[in-house]
């Protein structure tokens, strides 16, 4: 058996627009974010992915709403969806809610860059990307991946850093490689997996 895994980062949020650290805070999507989610649904439909067997998302509203909008767009509003904190965005701790420019003024550009772009250095009271992976990887390996490998088509709507952790595991990337990996809002990444969980095919459904 093999299956299909679709990863989607939520559409633009109000705090993305304001250049704020978001993390586990829960701002809604902007109008642009709603449009991104609907466009993701249209691109999935155009690529032949108009039906899913299972959905997974985080406990945060922006990811949940993105998934809901995608499913409404493809015409599948009755999908079984699991919500789990394991898929939440990286926790930015004391940085959450701060403007990124203000944070640079307070702590210095070099320190904020280390917090944002290092693999294993967390901000005060928060998580590093490695910490995020430590809660995301077990959930993927024990819950999501087995669902895909039973031959199902699965969609995951989550966040930049929780998805980067998943991509790191899926593609076997090093810490240095994943730090350079950008995941755009509202752009589906489609993996077809072999029965041994390796990647048979990957496509990025850009506009």
UniProtKB/TrEMBL annotation:
Residues that hold substrate according to the record: 9-16, 22-23, 62, 89-92, 100, 116-117, 160-161
Keyword Nucleotidyltransferase: no
Its EC number(s): 5.4.2.11
Catalysis: reaction(s): (2R)-2-phosphoglycerate = (2R)-3-phosphoglycerate
Annotated positions for site Transition state stabilizer: 159
Single GO BP term: gluconeogenesis
Entry GO MF terms: phosphoglycerate mutase activity
Active site location: 10, 89
Keyword presence, Isomerase: yes
Top-level EC class: isomerase
Pathway(s) the chain acts in: Carbohydrate degradation; glycolysis; pyruvate from D-glyceraldehyde 3-phosphate: step 3/5
PROSITE patterns named in the record: PG_MUTASE (PS00175)
Function as written in the Swiss-Prot or TrEMBL entry: Catalyzes the interconversion of 2-phosphoglycerate and 3-phosphoglycerate.
UniProt xrefs under PANTHER family: PHOSPHOGLYCERATE MUTASE
Quaternary structure (record): Homodimer.
Protein name: 2,3-bisphosphoglycerate-dependent phosphoglycerate mutase
Taxon lineage: Bacteria, Pseudomonadati, Pseudomonadota, Alphaproteobacteria, Hyphomicrobiales
Gene field: gpmA
């Amino acid at each position: 058996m093999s299956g299909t895994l679709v990863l989607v980062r939520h559409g633009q949020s109000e705090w993305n627009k304001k250049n704020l650290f978001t993390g586990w805070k829960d701002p809604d999507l902007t109008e642009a974010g709603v449009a991104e989610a609907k466009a993701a649904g249209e691109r999935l439909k155009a690529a032949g992915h108009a039906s899913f067997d299972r959905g997974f998302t985080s406990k945060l509203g922006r990811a949940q709403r993105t998934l809901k909008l995608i499913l409404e767009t493809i015409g599948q509003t009755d999908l079984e969806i699991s919500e789990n904190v394991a898929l939440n965005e990286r926790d930015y701790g004391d940085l959450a809610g701060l403007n990124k420019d203000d944070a640079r003024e307070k702590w210095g550009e070099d320190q904020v860059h280390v917090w944002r772009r290092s693999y294993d250095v967390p901000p005060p009271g928060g998580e590093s990307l490695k910490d995020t992976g430590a809660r995301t990887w077990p959930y993927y390996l024990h819950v999501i991946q087995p669902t895909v490998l039973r031959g199902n088509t699965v969609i995951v709507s989550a966040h930049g850093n929780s998805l980067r952790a998943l991509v790191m595991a899926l593609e076997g990337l090093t810490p240095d490689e994943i730090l350079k990996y950008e995941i755009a809002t509202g752009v589906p990444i489609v993996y077809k997996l072999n029965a041994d969980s390796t990647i048979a095919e990957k496509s990025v459904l850009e506009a």
